[in-house]
Amino acid sequence: MHGLGNIDYEKINRRVKICDYLVVAQLFLQDNFLLERPLEPKDIKPRLLGHWGTCHGINVVYASLKAALGDEAEFVLGPGHGFPALQANLFIDGELEKVDKHATRDEKGLAYICKSFSWPSGAPSHASPATPGVICEGGELGYALASGYGLALGHPEKTVAVLIGDGELETATALASLNLVKLLGSHKANGRVIPILHLNGYKISGPTISARKSERELAQQIRGFGYTPIEATEENLAEKLRTDVKHPFIIFRSEKGEGGPIRFNGKKIADNFLSHQIPLKNAKLDIKELKTLEKWLKSYDFKLEDIR
Predict the structure, then answer these.
(1) Which residue(s) pair with 295 in the sheet?
(2) What does the pLDDT look like over 62-93, one tens digit per residue?
(3) What is the dihedral sign for C-alpha 306, 113, 85, 272?
(4) CATH number for the domain including 80?
């Protein structure tokens, strides 16, 4: 099943950086997408709406899943508010262009997905059914695992990886869906589901419950539902996804808002709930925020050939 060769973590890391850049560009930029000149206020969208904090983790999971299982696995995204990460991955893989002729993998396509993100008549800030493969509006947290089991029902050939946000795991629907492993997980007529808990510690306004449990307490809760908990980080997630454990439940630990501003104006941004939405929301008006954004974008060393 997993005879796909060695895992190239350097390739995974490069893909994640590309997608992280595309996320930030979608959130902030309406021009100067390749940073061919210093950023100016006119390059920044007049209205900034979206979510950064979960996106790096989504990009890591997407890249690791492709490296570990290739096209064997289906991917179900729970935290749909991280839509710019999903769109970035679909864009560089050419999947977006299949349904939108303007999303070409060149400078014009890059400008198109960035300018139209979270904009009237463009793409919404959350995942929506207009996106290839999306069946729910991305703000409806809690349904991912149930959807994943539904996808595996009656399809023994399928492996379905389901990313669940740790804030999402606090919903009644997500918690109740954990019981589905008892109903579907052992029947030969059904496929395999791999839940992945994205444990980044914070939700929109504070810490998450799962992240405040001890490692043992969280593992015991997961075992109680019938899964085998498997701890993972960015450095080994792809390897963990190749597990042959019967009912794995991967606990993927990452930093909220990783790669973005660590601190700004005396406030902790990364690894804190303040990275959940837009970290530099006054970048159009505040020159200090604009320069911080420029430094952030340049840290990814993005080039146009990265998307070709």
Answers:
(1) none
(2) 999 999 999 889 999 999 999 999 999 999 99
(3) positive
(4) 3.40.50.970
Distance CA 117, CA 115 (A): 6
Spatial CA neighbour of 238 closest among 93, 79, 76, 59: 59
How high does pLDDT run on average in the chain? 94
Instruction: Note down the domain range covering 23.
Output: 11-307
Q: How far is Cα 18 from Cα 300, in angstroms, rounded to an integer?
A: 7
Is 76 contained in some domain?
yes
Contact 230, 57 (CB under 8 A): no
222 Cβ contact list (under 8 Å, min separation 6):
178, 229, 249, 251
| Separation between Cα atoms, residue 168 and residue 150, nearest integer Å | 18
276-298 pLDDT tens trace: 999 999 999 999 999 999 999 99
Residue 197 falls within a domain, yes or no?
Answer: yes
Question: What are the pLDDT digits (tens) for 205-231?
Answer: 899 999 999 999 999 999 999 999 999
- Domains in the chain, number: 1
Q: Reading across the β-sheet that carries 73-77, which strands appear in turn?
A: 73-77, 159-165, 192-199, 248-253, 228-232
**Residue 200 placed within a domain:** yes
